[in-house]
Design goal:
The chain is 56% helix and 8% strand. By secondary structure, the protein is mainly alpha-helical. The strands form two sheets. Strands 1-2 form a two-stranded antiparallel ribbon. β1 and β2 (16-20) form a beta hairpin. The longest helix is centred in the first third of the chain and has 57 residues, at 24-80. The protein is elongated and about 75 Å long. It is found in: Membrane. It comes from Solirubrobacter pauli. It holds the Pfam family RDD.
Length: 252
Amino acid sequence: MEYEDRREIATPEGVQLALPLANIGSRFLSTLIDLLIGGAAALVVILLAAALGGEIAATIAAAAAFLVFYVGYHVVFEVVGGGRTIGRRAAGLRVVMDSGAPVGLRASLIRNILRILEGAALSYLPAIIAILSTKNNQRLGDLAAGTLVVRDVKTPAYEPPRAAIPPAQFQSWDVAGVGEQELMAVRTFLDRRHSFAPGPRAALAAELATKLRPLVPGVRPGLHDEQFLEYLAAAKSGPMVPPVGGSHTPYG
């Protein structure tokens, strides 16, 4: 089994987006950290319930803590925390949909309800077998939910426009070498970028910008990839597209 696999996604922009898949070692590390956190929190709750209400209260608290950790903890961090629990953040991992989009509530619920079967009931043995034998390193919950666990991709530094973009920034560019097919790819990316998770979004912008920069003489060095694509669309088409993120904030 090759542990540095990548999932290739063919986007409507005509670009192959590579998502670096998490291997079983990094997934084990993130799971171990989350188990230690959840176990410590559950122990405190159970001891407190036992002290206040006796054995029955402790049993009820143990069942509730189990469900909260195995399902609630992961769902909250995956949906609200960008696909990263505390353990995944420490291991540099993230859960995304198999299209590269952020994971949604329904998918998170499916993968984490199945975690009870794979993890607590069967000691993660089915999960290990599935990760080692599937093409995209997916456990059963991932297969059912249509999710992937990927290595987190660091996003490039964002350079927000300081004010209205001076026409001289892009109107002097020679964009004759950029054809309609390339322009359509840029426009499609700019329209759909907010549907991507930050890592895949930055990777796709970088891939498009890397392919198109050599076709446009006069581009100043250090220009952010998404700004370059915006300026290119403006220079080629006329009207300027909205700033990155819509409000001078990256990856909204």
